[in-house]
Amino acid sequence: MTEAESKWNEKLKKFFKDYYWNEILQLANEYPDQRSLTVDFTDIEKFDRELSKEFLERPGELIEAAEAALKEIDLPVEKEFEQAHVRIIKIPNRIPIRELRSKHLSRFVAIEGMIRKATEVRPRITKAAFQCLRCGHLTLVEQNSFKFEEPFAGCENETCGKKGPFKVSIEDSSFVDAQKLQIQESPENLKGGSQPQSLEVDSEDDLTGNVTPGDRVIINGVLKSRQRALKDGKSTFYDLVLEANSIEHLDQDFDELEITPEDEEKILELSRDPAIYDKIIGSIAPSIYGYEDIKEALALQLFSGVVKNLPDGSRIRGDIHMMLVGDPGIAKSQLLRYVVKLSPRGVFASGRSASASGLTAAAVKDDLNDGRWTIEGGALVMADMGVAAVDEMDKMKTEDKSALHEAMEQQTISIAKAGIIATLKSRCALLGAANPKYGRFDRYEGLAEQISMPPALLSRFDLIFVLLDTPNHALDSRIANHILQSHYAGELHEQREKLPGSLITEEFVEAELEVIEPVIEADIMRKYVAYARKNVYPVMEDNARSHLINFYTDLRKSGEGKNTPVPVTARQLEALVRLSEASARVRLSNIATLEDAKRTIRIVMNCLKNVGVDPETGALDADIIASGTSMSQRNKIKILKDVIKKVCERHPGSKAPLEEVYAEAEKEYGIDRIHAEEYIKKMRQRGDLVAPDQIHIRLVN
User: Fold this and answer.
1) Segments in 49-165 forming alpha helices (H)
2) How far apart are alpha carbons 160 and 156 in whole angstroms?
3) pLDDT of residue 5
4) Which residues of the chain form CATH 3.30.1640.10?
5) How far apart, in Å, are the Cα atoms of 389 and each of 172, 314, 602, 645, 663?
6) Cα torsion at 279, 284, 288, 292 (round to 10°)?
7) pLDDT digits 0-9 by tens, 510-540
8) Which of 120, 163, 307, 424 has the most CB atoms within 10 Å of its CB?
9) Does domain 631-699 bear CATH number 1.10.10.10?
10) pLDDT bracket for residue 190 (50, 70, 90)
11) What residue spans in the chain does CATH classification 3.40.50.300 cover?
12) How far apart are alpha carbons 46 and 575 in whole angstroms?
């Protein structure tokens, strides 16, 4: 041991005894199951400023010295810390991945981000014991983490000295658990949709197996470099690798948003404003005119209901899923992008370019240099505890849509591929947008027929809004004024910025921009949402609860008759509860009142009137969303089946002529030809009918 090392050794022993004696005794009790002593860097700074500086400058030597000092401490119990580690947390030297440079090499750094990939934990050989097959002597060779070293000098037995052959004796070799990770910048910290950068991490021993893709962490470690290998030799470029010393799990909530005391004061002041709902509605996509009810629902989605973890281990989601269906050119995508911008953790994906594995999770052949299988989290895992917006949901492939079922209701993503069975968390609210099949929405048709989405998936959405583009002179002129005002304000702003000799004053631009300015700035709005979700947990008042129960039971009562449809299901009741909690959170109130219940009933009824009404009878029918077929349609399909049966009996070979079926259905039961054709098409799709030729049909028994 050199003089400098012995100086550090004595200092470190004194530090451990002064600051961490109790922790060392606890470690001695639990060793070897527990092998790490966690040291707070601020304690090292308090103890000796010079020592803390050395830790940052020369971490490799000092961590080794600290572990050596820990082994030498006299313990009151008969134990030796042979493989004990010193894990240092709360390193002040926090550097974003994209700002890592060559000057940081061999320094102690803290990297914050999200785990993108994690390989399985496997043993790595640290000391290989080679047995000489001629004389049986064991030769030990230290292994570095990159390339397997063999005993080039030959057998160490003086009487033998031969260059082999050798075989590795596994029993006499030393192994350590190893895992490779990839950490990536968190999506919420990215500026302007830039490509997130990632860094490879090596973790060993008791650090392995503690993280899964999607976890937000700070990894403290020593930044090392590794030379790239080319086909014809070595490259002059080096790759960065972080040798992990400790991993700190960030609280899964919204800690990334720094809320200062001034911000908190502003937030509390806003919450006391009686017009807070109008202000928040005015702050969501102000450049889009109207849609107050949709913006109100989007605001509630941002604030979300309360997650309930019940004593029996089950979990009820608090996130509100929303779907916007409507004609082209009515700013659906704009609304989606704006909500992602306001959400403390938002991810945007488009249906055509998103696959099932891109949304949920993928098992990929790993490029972390040894080709193992790893799990890679997709968009819904990235948006954990935030909002995932998926545009063009109708353009997704059918198998990709089916991946969303579990993610929406259970809020987990189970993956069983390539020998990996894992469950990832996706506790996010889904905001979807879809266009009707034939371009425009037909209000006289059911919803399920117009969107190519499975009814089971549609029923999982708490709110489905239909946006119609209907000409209305007074409204159109207001929208036109608003759009042109937005463009005009934008033109003025750009001209003032880009033309040096422009005569437009800043005051003039600000006055014109006022129309499209959000009432609450986007930055404060994000903090407001994060603050509410983190600190407010509303409980429903008795009168609010009974109001919701009465509303639900009254609606259900209308479906008690034999030929009346079921108007709403328990899923809509759960949606009402979640929305009421979100409504209380908007006011930062821990009590959900009757007013909140009334507000949510108004929003839900707006949705049901557009989506859950049977276009033929005008009655509310939950089956339209749940199964894609309304009760009146089912009844008519039943009648048509009877008609086809009758006609088949009259003809030899049990084939019914189509024309005769249409004529009888119209004459006997008043089902016109257009509807009859549609129902027969539906029955053929479901396999209830077959058509032996162009003009005949037959029932399948």
Assistant:
1) 49-57, 59-72
2) 8
3) 61
4) 3-89
5) 55, 26, 24, 48, 49
6) -60
7) 777 666 677 778 778 888 888 888 888 888 8
8) 424
9) yes
10) low
11) 316-471
12) 53
CB 245 within 8 Å of CB 62: no
Strand partners, 322: 431, 463
Which residue in 429, 478, 443, 138 sits closest to 298, CA to CA? 429
Tell me the mean pLDDT in the region 643-670. Answer: 75
pLDDT tens-place string over residues 211-268: 877 777 888 888 888 887 777 778 888 888 888 888 888 754 444 566 778 888 888 8
Q: Which of 18-22, 162-166, 565-569, 588-592 has the lowest mean pLDDT?
A: 565-569
Let me know: does 507 contact 558? Beta carbons within 8 Å: no
635-661 exposure pattern, b = at least 16 Cβ within 10 A, e = fewer: ebbebbeebbeebbeeeeebbbebebb
Tokens of 489: 């304000």
Beta bridge partners of 699: 689
Residues of the chain with CATH 1.10.10.10: 631-699
Using CA atoms, how far apart are residues 89 and 249, in angstroms rounded to an integer?
11
pLDDT of residue 564: 47
Question: What is the Cα–Cα distance from 113 to 250, expressed in whole angstroms?
Answer: 9
C-alpha span between 213 and 376 (Å, rounded):
6
Rounded to an integer, what distance in angstroms lies between the CA atom of residue 97 and that of residue 11? 33
Q: Where in the chain is the domain with CATH 2.40.50.140?
A: 100-249
Sheet holding 689-690, edge to edge: 656-657, 696-699, 689-690
Q: Which of 196, 21, 41 is nearest to 109 (CA)?
A: 41
What is the per-residue pLDDT for 452?
A: 72
Which class does domain 3-89 fall in? Answer: alpha beta
What pLDDT is attached to residue 616?
53
The pLDDT-based confidence of 74 (bands split at 50, 70, 90) is: confident
Token pair for residue 569?
């299901």
Tokens matching residue 438: 């034939």
3-state secondary structure at position 685: helix
Q: Choose among 5, 585, 605, 545: nearest CA to 299.
A: 585
The CATH class for the domain spanning 316-471 reads alpha beta
The encoded tokens of residue 553 equal 């039971």
Q: CA 264 to CA 276: how far, in whole Å?
A: 16
For the chain, what's the residue count?
701
Q: What is the pTM of this model?
A: 0.67
Nearest to 533 by CA among 585, 491, 573: 585
CATH number of 100-249: 2.40.50.140
8 A C-beta contact, residue 346 and residue 301: no
Question: Pick from 386, 429, 431: which is nearest to 294 by CA?
Answer: 431
Distance of CA 658 to the CA centre of its chain: 51
